Amino acid sequence: MNSNISIKKLFERIDNIVNLMSERDFQSEMRGEKYNIFQLLGVKTDETHLHSALLADLLNPNGSHTLGSKPLQRFIELCGYNYYEKFDYNDVMIDTEFSIGNKDKCTIEGGRLDILIRSGNNVIVIENKIHAQDQENQLVRYYNYCKKHYTDKTFVIFYLTLDGNEASLRSTKGELEEGKHYHSISYDVEISEWISYCIEIASDKPLVRGTLVQYLNLIKELTNNNMDKDLKQQIYKLMAENVASARLIYDNFDWGFRKYLVQTYVIEPLKTWAIQKDYDIIIGRELANQGAYEGFAVKYKNFESWIAFEFQEADFKCLKVGELKSNGLYLLDAGNDTRQSLIYEHFKLNKYPNWSLDIAENIINFDVLKYLEEIIEKELSEFQNDRIDKFS
């Protein structure tokens, strides 16, 4: 009982902070600070044409920013590159999407380096990841290339992700060690601090500064780090004063909470809606466990073909819709442990392809459910029209 009371009070006090945050967001929007050209152009997660291109230009002492070598110097310092004092900032070559040859059959050579920086005896490779998955032996291939072609130089590979994750075994083959063969850096820490520094030194260059401010705001959104520092400190203080309650919330927040949201606000109401529409519906037995190639399917009662929704990746990621394969119905009901897709002629949803906590409000407000209902109605209608055309 005491724990419940404590949690309730904690939520009430956090609600006050959330209301203050909402007020600040409103004021920020009124000042035009929410305007972001990168989001408007739909390129906010474009690794090649936005992030790598912008970072490479900013790192280039001869870049269009006209800030000289200061951004590159600061980047090297922040990332802890031990040889920055020997770096010749007057002789720098920077390439993006640098080809290191075709991938061989064993996939231990070849590919493209996102960003390659060369200066005298120093070589820096940056592998840039926003949402893309690691490729087969990706860092192994890059490391082998550097070891082969830069034997007389000092090279370092930075693995850049949103939150500083280590590369997967798929990329390293278990042969490369973080901190030894490559170094993890993040948009959340190193890049955010670096862009903030660049904004400071661009105070007399309004267009450069304005662009970087928008880019920093984009990074904050991508890393879920767009809360003001003082509000964060207030939340941390509340958590410190209510450690047991905060821990209980934390332990149940991600996997279990997301499972509850999906079951309560999507699956159960979807089943009710389908029954009211007189549709047949089947929910994958293992869907709640958030495995890959799990999903659900719907059809007209007098039809054989099912419209199926399937998560191509675990953790409710990459939702696609298509027609259920002949063996799909059995595997949905029994639990799909084949690790193979059950649908064909599929396409990825334009909205809500990933059911993460980022869209928790959309799930709770039934936006996701309504979108699924619209897709189902549209696809079933097309099935019906195809059937009419076939027998007319």
Radius of gyration: 25 Å
Strand order of the largest sheet: 1-2-3-4-5
Largest sheet: 5 strands, mixed
Structural class: alpha+beta
Choose one word for the global shape.
Answer: globular
Q: Let me know the average pLDDT.
A: 84
Provide a brief overview of the structure.
The chain is an alpha+beta fold and 392 residues long. It has helices spanning 2-30, 37-40, 47-59, 70-78, 138-149, 169-172, 187-201, 206-222, 229-241, 243-251, 255-276, 328-334, 360-364, 367-391; strands spanning 93-99, 112-119, 122-128, 154-161, 183-186, 279-283, 294-300, 307-313, 317-324, 343-348. Helix 1 (2-30) runs antiparallel to helix 9, helix 4 (70-78) runs antiparallel to helix 7 (187-201) and helix 9 (229-241) packs across helix 10 (243-251).
SSE layout and pairing:
Layout: H1 2-30, H2 37-40, H3 47-59, H4 70-78, E1 93-99, E2 112-119, E3 122-128, H5 138-149, E4 154-161, H6 169-172, E5 183-186, H7 187-201, H8 206-222, H9 229-241, H10 243-251, H11 255-276, E6 279-283, E7 294-300, E8 307-313, E9 317-324, H12 328-334, E10 343-348, H13 360-364, H14 367-391
Parallel strand pairs: 3-4, 4-5
Antiparallel strand pairs: 1-2, 2-3, 6-7, 7-8, 8-9, 9-10
